[in-house]
Write a structure and sequence with these properties.
The protein is an alpha/beta fold. The chain has 10 helices and 35 strands. Helix 3 crosses helix 9 (381-393), helix 4 packs across helix 7 and helix 5 (253-267) packs parallel to helix 7 (287-305). The longest helix has 19 residues, at 287-305. The protein is elongated and about 105 Å long.
């Protein structure tokens, strides 16, 4: 019996050219439908794309297809390679896209063979706004119960997350779910605490028509809140200020902070839209007190989000009637304080704050059909009038001079086999905390380690960075069959058909990518067949004359 020896140098690869086509399934797990990402001032944003596939893939491509609309919008891209040689059934890459409303398509290849493709519809590159303030910013629960919702958005491109934090919730116990976007209907809530569409559906329609890009809103307002409560909880997350009732710990500012560090971190933002001041009319808040607390809230929002020039648009509002007030009135100290922060009274005023823009003047918007009988809350056509004055202030000067913040990249994952049928998934970077989760909302906790081993299911990791921003990774699925997905490498010199030879504890099959490690030797026993799809020999391969190498060329001494 003769024994043949095969000594091949590093990086020589034996490939199979006669393998059978495998119909692979490719999925897109990130982004999800109707998500809107903030664009930069050059009308561009990176879109991070990730998903899973079920057969050996050496290239993943993606493209953005502008959805047909009149007038036309968006710019369809060519196919772009977003990752070469992905591993273990998971891919992750980036595609730069211009402002618009898109379908994103992904396809995967093995050489020149197309294995499969997938499509996610309605992905937006446009403008993201975070709303804050009191009831004329967020809507009101009592008004909602009376049917005072505000109009829905008619344009398909206006998106929100239809979710509200349960009341009461202390800051620190807020556990926001993974964002699933919806079109803005009139009765939908706007995460994390918006009560209804209010004026924002109408404003979204106006902005999409004017800018020809999608719009997304988040809403961190709180009905009935005064500036003192906002300022004190911005400075102290354990504070419980009194506003008609004792506020939950750390609220209302905790809503804003949670939205900044969760939703805004993931999708980016253009500006905070602030409508608040009515309660401070009742409290007769002084000019300096209001201005100092508003400046504090703005500066803390920048500190807590890590966005040092985060733009704010401050509306000038104070009209109130109620309790000891028999007539609706305005309160000039609040208006002057808002002017001070904006810079309308000069940038040497103590409470002036940079990157704060003038919002709408709303106190003069009164009359039947505009406000409710208390002359405070908008109703009927008043919602559209309020949207109109907001649109006037979100003008070209504002967009030119404000600094948008793009989405922070979601965490990247790496994986490797952990036994025959288990996958060890790890977070690529170091974060202050990691939380592994397997439920749809990504708000349960399986483990707080930097890696997690699983033999089935779909997993994500939720991380917190040094600033406090919370990001959720795309979903990674543990394959039901590891063959062909996880490269097989020998850990020791040994016999090909002995499972202990191989790192994954699994003998290679005809659809596996096999590597023989440098400095090590693998022997194919006589009469047996070594099967593989792709073979890289960095060490030595030894086999008998009666041995066979399936899916390889004939090899001689």
């Amino acid at each position: 019996m003769f024994i043949k020896y095969l000594y091949l140098s590093l990086n020589i690869v034996i490939l199979s050219f006669n393998s059978t086509f495998i119909n692979a399934q490719v999925s897109i797990t990130y982004p999800t439908s109707r998500a809107v990402f903030q664009r930069n001032n050059s009308n561009q944003s990176p879109v991070y794309i990730a998903g899973n596939y079920t057969a050996f893939t050496d290239k993943v491509e993606a493209r953005a297809i502008a959805r047909p609309m009149t007038p036309s919008q968006g710019i369809t891209t060519t196919w772009v390679t977003i990752q070469n040689n992905p591993s273990n059934g998971y891919y992750y890459g980036t595609l730069n896209i211009s402002g618009g409303w898109y379908d994103i398509e992904v396809r995967c290849w093995n050489g020149t063979t197309l294995l499969g493709n997938s499509l996610v519809q309605r992905i937006g590159i446009g403008e993201v706004f975070l709303i804050a303030g009191q009831s004329n910013a967020t809507g009101d629960e009592d008004l909602r119960n009376q049917g005072n919702y505000g109009p829905m958005a008619n344009d398909d491109r206006v998106s929100i997350v239809n979710y509200a934090i349960p009341f009461p919730t202390n800051y620190g116990s807020v556990n926001l779910p993974r964002a699933e976007f919806s079109h803005l209907d009139s009765t939908f809530r706007i995460a994390p605490f918006g009560v209804s569409a209010w004026c924002w559906g109408a404003l979204g329609d106006t902005l999409t028509k004017r800018l020809n890009v999608p719009i997304a809103f988040f809403n961190a307002g709180w009905s009935g809140t005064g500036i003192t409560a906002w300022g004190r909880t911005a400075m102290d997350s354990t504070a419980t200020p009194f506003n008609f009732y004792t506020m939950p710990r750390g609220m209302p500012y905790g809503n804003l902070r949670a939205a900044l560090q969760f939703y805004v971190a993931q999708f980016g933002v253009r500006a905070v839209l602030w409508h608040q001041g009515e309660t401070d009319n009742l409290a007769e808040t002084t000019r300096n007190t209001y201005g100092d607390f508003l400046k504090t809230v703005i500066l803390k929002s920048r500190e807590h989000s890590g966005k040092t020039t985060l733009a704010w648009v401050v509306s000038k509002v104070s009209r109130f009637k109620g309790f000891n007030l028999t007539h609706s009135r305005i309160w000039q100290p609040v208006i002057e304080a808002q002017n001070d922060v904006i810079g309308m009274n000069g940038n040497t005023q103590a409470n002036y704050t940079s990157q704060v823009f003038e919002g709408p003047i709303t106190d003069g918007l009164i009359g039947p059909g505009i406000r409710t009988s208390d002359s405070v809350h908008f109703v009927g056509n008043g919602h559209r009038i309020l949207a109109h004055v907001w649109n006037q202030k979100l003008n070209s000067t504002f967009f030119t001079n404000s600094t948008p913040y793009l989405p922070i990249p979601p965490p990247t994952l790496t994986s490797d086999c952990n036994g025959v049928s288990s996958l060890l998934i790890s977070v690529s970077n170091s974060y202050s905390t990691s939380q592994w989760t397997d439920n749809y909302g990504a708000n349960n906790n399986l483990s707080n380690s930097s890696s997690y081993s699983a033999s089935s299911g779909a997993l994500r990791v939720k991380i917190k960075d040094a600033t406090g921003n919370i990001l959720i990774s795309p979903q990674i699925s543990v394959p039901s069959n590891f063959s062909g997905l996880i490269p097989i490498v020998n850990e020791i010199s040994g016999i090909w058909h002995d499972y202990t030879t191989w790192k994954c504890g699994r003998i290679p099959t005809s659809i596996d990518f096999v590597t023989i490690s440098s400095g090590k030797e693998v022997i194919v026993s006589g009469g047996l067949t070594a099967r593989f799809k792709k073979l890289e020999i960095r060490g030595n391969l030894r086999f008998f004359t009666s041995s066979k190498l399936q899916n390889s060329p004939n090899i001689e001494n």
